[in-house]
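Request: Show me your protein:
***
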Amino acid sequence: MYNIFLSIAIILVVTNIGGTLSKKIKMPQVLGALVAGVIIGPSCFNIVKYNNDLKLLSDLGVVLLMFIAGIETDLEELKKAGLSSLLIAAGGVIVPLIFGTLTAYAFFNNFYENLFIGVILTATSVTISVQTLNEIGKLNTKAGINILGAAVIDDVIGLLIVSFVLSIAQSAKSGGNVGSSLLLVSIKVLLFCIGALLLILFMPKFIDKFTTKKGKHQNLIIYSLALVLIFAFAAESLGIAAITGAYVFGLILSPVTHNDYISKELKSISENFLSPIFFASVGLVTNFRSVNSSILVLTIVMLIVAVLGKIIGCGLVAKLYGMKTKESVQIGVGMISRGEVAIITTSLGLQSGIISDKLSIPTLIVVVMTTLITPVFLKIAFSEKTPKFNNDTKLVE
């Protein structure tokens, strides 16, 4: 039993080193943590063994990670994102989902596994795009604002799709009737969406009374953490992914008083303990020694679909909405980068048995490669002067 203590200590040290080195080359720290997990896992030195103890901590890390993503979402900015960002996000989800599912049939015959590959490719990580746009001074352009809005909406849509597909696949796996399962899951997701929307609209007012009265007190952290787990449990009980429940509770807390204090405290737990374990665990269950020609081909195909899916899906919608060709390309490129959500989705698929272990390798490479190429593509796309606009200017003229 006590071996887990040593395993956690090793994970925390090597992920910290990896994250620090990654940050020095202006890449997200998560990349360093992923690589660190690969190094100490079966692909290289095989120092740490993945087990149920690490799985539990990894699951907690995912839930807390998605809660923080929710609480750090600015609902007002999300409202201002407008119809253009909503449509761009929808295009950026639908096209990779269809392309990914169809191309997967060249490698697998299982419908649900193929569908889940498409689901994995719908994810978008805006972090690297924001860093790059800020660096080149293009964050406050029409394309930049649409990228920000679409990326947030993309995550919300993606989480719902993940929950939907997981529920349907697990029901089919247990031998249930697909038609009735589809109807039942649809009703559950619809009720969950309505309930979540009502809670996001009205619950913050009641929570505000409590947070204002208590001030920045330790009880806020304890109750918030407890409610994160309760929302995750409730979502899982309904057949919705636990991460979706955690994300919704984060959205509920995002406008309340002292949300910054809650976010800071729980982020400390997440970033310094649970998240490194989760990202390292991805590397621990990924064995690059099992790579063969078919996996390499699958990786290349997934990478191509990941890139073109966002450029075509987001860029085409932006163009149809009336934006210039250059702006449409910029938006498509800005949505290429994958990140935590793609990794989390893959992890959920592996745990539920929908996808096979060998899919972790292509996904990991796609996440790394899209993160590396997005800054380069963005700088090329914004190479010419692009007009900026202030906060009073509409997203689409």
Notes: Residues 178-214 form the longest helix (37 residues).
